[in-house]
Design goal:
globular, 2 domains, single chain, 10 helices, 0% strand, mainly alpha
Length: 272
């Protein structure tokens, strides 16, 4: 299949209003996950336990009556959103906004971002399926185990440092997007005061948590301590050990909750 044929096929598939609705449902599920994550972080702030990452939030669903049905719905929604991002990566812009692609370097940046989001949402869909079937595992434990294997080799440690730097860069991008309010460009309508405030707080907080996780990956590689390379969960629990840890965790919880609320805004008004 030629590139033009692939583009035409993607155009036809994404013309389906049901596909777009399913993809938008992915934002709703993502918002719910972040609200649950915020709850877990707040619980840790007051001495509770839990895995402070998306797998921990999915585990909360799994433990509730009817939770497995919800997880299957979440898996379908995340898969639809992942495929929508893949379509954006192929087209080089928003699927239903042909003017969003300018053919320059920014187009390739948008393609790379869409491809990264495709991988992210696909992994969330897979995690939801695993928890729905009763085989879900903490992503923090998986990350720590994989990091431990990589640390057995010099090349593996270097790879972890590179991964950590990439994660820090992603976190920095989230902070930049929040502080500069660039996230408003993702919406089909201008954001009011509440939407703007929610986006600024949400993106900045999430970016800070992601960057913290990346820094811990780098520290873990240098110190050969795989327990520090368990992702967002490790970053959150590192905050808990700081002198003002409780206050920082409460702020992180509020920020993640704000991002969750902004995901609901995305479900309704995102340019797609």
């Amino acid at each position: 299949m030629s590139r033009n044929q692939a583009v035409r096929t993607v155009d036809r598939v994404t013309d389906s209003p049901w596909f777009e609705r399913a993809a938008r449902a992915g934002h709703v599920v993502n918002g719910l996950l972040h609200l649950l994550l915020a709850y877990i972080v707040a619980r840790i702030a007051f001495g509770g336990g839990g895995s402070a990452d998306q797998s921990g939030a999915l585990a909360v669903f799994a433990g509730q009556p009817g939770g497995r049905v919800v997880l299957w719905v979440a898996a379908v929604a995340f898969l639809a959103l992942a495929l929508w991002r893949l379509a954006e990566a192929i087209l080089g812009g928003k699927v239903n906004d042909p003017d969003s692609s300018d053919g320059g370097l920014s187009e390739w940046f948008d393609r790379g971002k869409a491809l990264a989001l495709f991988v992210l949402y696909l992994s969330l869909a897979w995690s939801a399926v695993n928890f729905a079937t009763g085989s879900g595992q903490s992503s923090g434990q998986q990350n720590a185990g994989m990091s431990a294997r990589l640390m057995e080799h010099t090349g593996g440690k270097l790879l972890l440092v590179i991964v950590g730097l990439i994660v820090v860069a992603v976190g920095g991008y989230f902070v930049y997007k929040g502080v500069t309010k660039n996230f408003l460009d993702d919406l089909r309508r201008g954001g009011g005061t509440a939407v703007t405030a929610t986006g600024v707080i949400g993106y900045t907080a999430k970016g800070g948590v992601i960057a913290g996780a990346g820094i811990l990956v780098i520290v873990a590689a240098i110190r050969a301590d795989p327990s520090k390379a368990s992702g967002i969960d490790a970053a959150i629990k590192t905050l808990a050990g700081l002198p003002a840890g409780q206050i920082l965790l409460i702020l992180a919880a509020l920020g993640l909750a704000a991002y969750g609320v902004y995901c609901f805004v995305m479900a309704r008004w995102a340019r797609m």
